[in-house]
Amino acid sequence: MNAVTQASNAHVSTVKLLIDGEFVESKTKEWRDIVNPATQEVLARVPFATVEEVDQAVKAAHAAFATWKTTPIGTRLRIMLKLQALIRENMPRIAQTLTAEQGKTLPDAEGDIFRGLEVVEHACSIGTLQQGGFAENVAGGVDTYTLQQPLGVCAGITPFNFPAMIPLWMFPMAIVCGNTFVLKPSEQDPLSTMQLVELAIEAGIPKGVLNVVHGGKEVVDAICTHELVKAISFVGSTAVGTHVYRLGSEHGKRVQSMMGAKNHAVVLPDANREQALNALVGAAFGAAGQRCMATSVAVFVGAAQQWVDELVEKAKTLKVNAGHEPKTDVGPVVSRTAKTRILGLIDSGVKQGATLALDGRDVKVPGYESGNFVGPTVFTDVKTDMDIYTNEIFGPVLVVLTAKTLDEAIAIVNANPFGNGVGLFTQSGAAARKFQSEIDIGQVGINIPIPVPVPYFSFTGSRGSKLGDLGPYGKQVVQFYTQTKTVTARWFDDATVSDGVNTTISLR
User: Fold this and answer.
1) How large is the average pLDDT for residues 403-432?
2) What does the pLDDT read at residue 507?
3) What span, in angstroms and rounded, lies between the C-alpha atoms of 5 and 191?
4) Has residue 147 got a pLDDT over 60?
5) What is the largest CA-CA distance in the chain?
6) What pTM value is reported for the model?
7) CA-CA 20 to 30 A from 480: which of 57, 128, 306, 409?
8) Which range has the worst mean pLDDT, 245-259, 286-300, 427-441, 482-496?
9) How far apart are the first and last CA of the chain?
10) 264-446: which CATH architecture?
11) CB 125 within 8 A of CB 468
C-alpha cells in the first residue's frame, strides 16, 4: 500500500497517515494543498490529522514497543543496512519529488537525501554505539555496570527545508536504539518524506514501530501532551521550537529543539580570496537561503572590506530558475507566504538605511512567471539593530558588516543571540585557534562556511538556536534516545555465607 493515493473525487492525490503498519486515509475535514513553488501546481493534498488519529498512532507505537525493545540489536541494525541500500537505490526518484515540492535544485535535493543517508549508515553501528560500561570489583566482590535501554515512544517534528535529511536524523536512530516512533513531517512538503517512510517499511521495520501523522499546531500539541510519548525531537523555527520545548517539558518529556539561526562568516584579509568569496556565495544563496546553517551575515575585517564588490559580482552570476532545470543555482522559496515575508524584510532594510548592493526582488524567470522566486540579494552598510540583522530572513539575502579587527568581529558574533554556526576564513593558524577558543557558537568552521558535522560527531548548535542539552544525531543522540540503568551486583560462591548485619552505607 502506498503513502499517497489518487483521490476518488479529484485528480489530486492524497497523502496517507501511517498507523500500526497501515497507510490509512485520514478522517479529518481539514486538508492542505502541497504546491510546487516554481509553478504553483498542486501536487497532492495532505491531511491535518485529528487528535484521535494522533492518539491511535501513539498507542500503536506503545503496543509495538513491548516486543521491539527486546528485538536483538543485530536484527535492528540489519534493517538499517537494508534501509540505507534502498535509499541509495531510490535517491534520484526521491530527489525529483523533493525538488518538485520544496523547490531546491536537483543536486541539492540529492545532497539533502545523502546527508540523511549518512545518519542511517551510522545507525548501522548501533552494536557499539549502545554499549554500556562495566567495572569489576568496585568493592569486595561487587561489580557495577550500566545498561543503555530504550525509552519507549519517541516523536519527531520536522521542517520544510530538509524533508529528507531531518526525518532521517530522527527515526532511524530512535528505532535502532529500540524505541518506537511517531513522525510528523512538514505539512508543506511531506511527499519525499513519505517515500522514505515507504522504504523503511520495505526494509522490514515492523508494524507500529514507525508511525506518521500530518498536521499543524493541534497535532504538535497532541504529541507534546500525550502521556505515552517519552521524548520529542524538533527542528524548525524558534517560535515553534520554544513552544514544543516548553509544552513537552511541562508534560515530562525529554525534548531537544534545534531552532533558528543567524550564522556569521568572518573574513580576514589573509584568507584565500577566491576560496572565501566562492564559499560565501554558495553558503548564502544555496537552497535559496532556506537552511538553518546558511551563512546570512558576512563580517569583513580590515582590508578584506575591499572584497565586497567582488562578492556582489559573484552573486550576480548565479542562475535563478526552477530547481529541476539544468544548471540552476537558486530555486524558488517554498511558498508565496515565505516570499512575501522575505520581500518585506528586504524593504525594511532599505527603509532603515542599509545599502542594497544587489536587489533580487524583481527577478523574472521565463516560463515560471508564477514561481516564488527571490534572487540573490546583498546588503552593505548594515547596522546590528536593523531588522535584516536581528531577524532570521530564511531567504537568499546576505547582509554585510565590517570590523577593524578580529577581536571586534568576535564581539559582533558573540553579541548575537543565536548560536548555530559560524565560519572563519584565514590562512593563520594562530587566528583560527583564537577564534575557535573565544567564539561562543556551537559549531565552528575554519575555511568551511557550513560547519555541519558528519554523523560520527553530534550537531551542537547552542544558545538561542537550541533548547535541550543533547544533539539530534551522533553519539549524543544515543544518550537522548536511551535511559542509562546502573546495576550494582554481588554474587556469592556459597548461598549460605553471611557477613552478618551491616547498617553502614559501605559495600566493603
Assistant:
1) 97
2) 53
3) 11
4) yes
5) 90
6) 0.95
7) 57
8) 482-496
9) 61
10) 3-Layer(aba) Sandwich (3.40)
11) no
Helix 238-250, helix 217-225: angle, nearest 10: 30
pLDDT in tens, 23-57: 999 999 999 999 999 999 999 999 999 999 999 99
pLDDT digits (tens, 9 = 90+) for 310-319: 999 999 999 9
Among 276, 254, 275, 273, residue whose Cα is nearest residue 265 = 276
Alpha-carbon distances of 195 from 85, 92, 104, 114, rounded to whole Å: 14, 12, 17, 15
C-alpha cell at 503: 547498617
What's the rounded Cα separation, in Å, for the pair 92 and 106? Answer: 9
* From 124, 177, 224, 292, the catalytic residue: 292
- Name the fold adopted by 17-259+474-486: Aldehyde Dehydrogenase; Chain A, domain 1 (3.40.605)
Strand partners, 232: 155, 255
Q: Considering Cα of 180, then 32, then 108, then 157, what sign does the dihedral take?
A: negative
Residue 70's identity, in one-letter code, is: T
- Contact call for residues 328 and 105 (beta carbons, < 8 A): yes
Q: How far apart are CA 132 and CA 53, in angstroms?
A: 37
Domain ranges for the chain, please list them: 17-259+474-486, 264-446
Distance CA 7, CA 10 (A): 6
C-alpha cell of 17?
Answer: 497517515
292 is catalytic: yes
* 3-class state of residue 289 by DSSP: helix
pLDDT of residue 502: 75
Compute the Cα dihedral for 395, 397, 399, 400 and give only its sign: positive
